[in-house]
Amino acid sequence: MPTPRAILFDLDDTLYPRRRFELSGFRAVAAYLDRHEGIDAGQAFVVLARASRGPHRGRALQACLSRFGLPYALVPDLIEIIRVHRPAIRLPIESHRTLERLRQHWRLGIVTNGLPAVQARKVDALGLRTLVDTVVFASQHGTGRGKPDPAPFVEALRRLGVPPSRALFVGDDDLCDLSGAARLGLRTVFFGGYLRPSFEQPRHADAVVDALARVSQVADILLPDEEGSRDVA
Hints:
single chain, 233 residues, alpha/beta, 42% helix
């Protein structure tokens, strides 16, 4: 009997664009400011969205509070709103179709960094639990620091019953995703589809794709079926 194969995926900026979660969080914050501070939700959202792309990137909440004359003491409350809100996000059609196609011949898993409760809400909102065999929240294993520590990868493979030599990892982060997986002997695919057009060439990638639809073809090249069968590209 052939040894089963597995493909593990990162979540944010791999299976869906993380920007969508960021904007969903901003909408929740804007609604809160509307209800409790009398700030128009539409105006607050525009300020947050623009600040997150400009020189205030990483400090969008502070920029919004400053714009409307509100105290920075509100920042922890706004961060918590983003963390606990129910994300208004959807899985891209390409991701859905890719996972449906792959699961016919591969065991599938997700290994994701981030706060487990936050990541779990993303997974549920995206409807991923019915499309993969397991989801591993990396910080719940090993040192708790998440990828690239080996423990989360090991746990995912244990659940799937697949050795590292028959597994492949797809992610957008050369350090956390690819180097961590490669050290355990997994093959690696860098996905740059949601990143800016020019990105630094990943050092730990066996292959690079700019569309998830290409993962099936590349995976079969990197890890051929032991019986010699291939998906039709």
